[in-house]
Amino acid sequence: MKTEFLTLLTHIRHLFGWLPGLLSSILMLCVAGLVAELFSRFITKLILRIPGQKRGAFVRSFTMAMQRPVRIMLVIVFVGTALPVSGLPYDIMQATTHTLVVLFVLMLGYAAVVATRILSDAYLKRINGKDDKDDILLRTHMTQVRVLRRTTDLMIGLLTIGAALMTFEPVRQYGLSLFASAGAASLVVGLAARPLLTNLFAGMQIAMTQPIRMEDLIIINGDWAWVEEITSTYVVLRVWDWRRHIVPISYFLENTFQNWTHNSAALIGVVFIHLDFNAPMERIRARLREIVHSAPLWDGKEFAVQVADCNAHVMTVRVIASARSAMQSWDLRCEIREQIIAFLRDECPEALPRDRLSHVASVSGLDVMGDPGMMVPPVRRPPPGAYTGPRDGTGGGGMGSGDGGQGHG
């Protein structure tokens, strides 16, 4: 078949014999490229007619994505095959051959990158299309596939550029000299590329060990942040207010951080309420139970109301309620606060925290304040000296506890 093709091209070149030799050779090579283009389109149309909903659809989509690099490689092959009968001068033919080899190597690397992306996307789509999919499993596969895909792209790019450069004689000789002095060269390259290599190996380790995954919720610098993108050298974190943290990927192997969705997205939210000691806990507990049980954000697992602490002024009530995710837990806590505050304000005002003060009047104080009706009645104070204890066995002396003492909430 190759012989017939070359014979056909030779006849075509003779048809352009009335043109200058260089121009006729170029036209013949253009005809070879056109034949490759038509052949590629014909094969593509045949493949696109393959029936099938699953495998057939994958073959069709794979063909559509690969048609450009494959078509260019076919043109390069056909033109390179036609070069021996093109009649070009030797130096031009050598330069053209070398150019075609470099282009073919570059397009081969590009085709490998495209194929890797198509296969990885098809795998993720298959995992995402399962009815019984697990969110943790899905995000695990997404992280592994994306990190490994970026690493593969980087390796393919380096190998492609290296193979293309090795086609040049000076670069080939330089490469051989580097191999001859591999010890010094590896030391210099290792020191120069240490940050890049550290992050590259860290990315591969994260893809395997999974300390973070795509869309994991983590705490960094006091901010909630979701893992938006994991590259081979850095991680993009999306903060709740749409800011972005760009963090080197090695950070997650060298520092401690909180991952709220590592094994499960469910969280237990905590709400603290400060109440007066006169608060009717049974009514408040019953109302909180109604609020949580009727909330659609509660997952039905954890709920409790306890007096967790107290001080000289108030007692602290802790409410815990679980939710399916961190954002739902946040919204559930806000809903609990809003409804219990409204309940305390409207139905249990005695439960609201208050400050107790006692203002003690004196003669000079009455003169300064002006209106005696604005002050509390005077308090009978003990004489100066040591405190002698309460009077008549009743709870007496002291500020606000004597005769006529009055407390203001």
Description:
- Pfam families: MS_channel_2nd (PF00924).
- This is Mechanosensitive ion channel family protein.
- Residues 392-409 have a biased composition (Gly residues).
- Keywords: Membrane, Transmembrane, Transmembrane helix.
- The chain is 55% helix and 14% strand.
- The chain is an alpha+beta fold and 409 residues long.
- The protein folds into 3 domains: 1-127 and 140-166, no CATH class; 178-262, Roll (SH3 type barrels); 265-346, Alpha-Beta Plaits.
- The strands form 2 sheets. Strands 4-3-2-1-5 form a 5-stranded antiparallel sheet. Strands 6-8-7 form a 3-stranded antiparallel sheet, covered by helices on one side.
- It is elongated, with a radius of gyration of 40 Å.
- Mean pLDDT is 76; it is low at 178-185, 365-370 and 394-409.
Strand order of the largest sheet: 4-3-2-1-5
Number of self-contained structural domains: 3
Shape designation = elongated
Number of strands: 8
Briefly note the structural class of the backbone. alpha+beta
Percentage of residues in helical conformation: 55-70%
How much beta, percentage-wise?
5-15%
Whole-number radius of gyration?
40 Å
Helices and strands, in N-to-C order?
Answer: HHHHHHHHEEEEHEEHEEHH
Major sheet details: 5 strands, antiparallel
Low-confidence stretches: 178-185, 365-370, 394-409
The chain-level mean pLDDT equals 76
Counting DSSP H or I runs of 4 or more residues, the number of helices is 12
Q: Kindly report how far apart the N and C termini lie.
A: 104 Å
